[in-house]
Amino acid sequence: MSSSLLTPDPGLVFWMTIAFGIVMFILGKFGFPVILDKIESRKKFIDDSLDAAKQSFEKLEHTREQNQALIDAANKEKEKILREAAKQRELILEKAKQKAIQETKHLIESARIQITQEREEAISAIRREVAQISVDIAEKVLRENLKDKESQMSMIERLVDEINLS
User: Fold this and answer.
1) Helix 32-145 vs helix 149-165: angle between axes, to the nearest 10 degrees?
2) Rg, C-alpha atoms of the chain
3) Which residues have a Cβ under 8 Å from the Cβ of 146 and sit 6 or more positions away?
4) Residue ranges per domain, the chain?
5) What's CA 27's distance to the chain center, in Å?
6) Are 152 and 146 in contact (CB under 8 A)?
7) Tens of pLDDT along 16-27?
């Protein structure tokens, strides 16, 4: 027997038909019902999703309307608050101005007192410096004048006499 590609052997066709029938039976018994159930559940899910989307859209529209009403009310309230805030600002500015004037007067008076105190302290410090410099100069002059023993003794006697007279 010669076989060609276009004319298959009858035994091969028989066995192929049986194998095809078994595969179709198994798919028909176990595969197609599962696939059909999945397709049906997917269809139900899509239908439910579309219904939910419609409901969400309706809720969104309702929410937009509510939001617009809230925005309008908020704008009116904002204008009222701004008017009241402007009035309060004017009052606060006036109070702050009066307080600033009082604080400025107080600060100026405090500065005058502080300047007077610092001037007194500076004068005292200058006097102490002048006294210290004078003592240093006097010490140097006395050392120069009292180099020898005799002039030292005469100076001591004269100072003792002055102390006794006082």
Assistant:
1) 100
2) 58
3) 152, 155
4) 11-165
5) 67
6) yes
7) 999 999 999 998
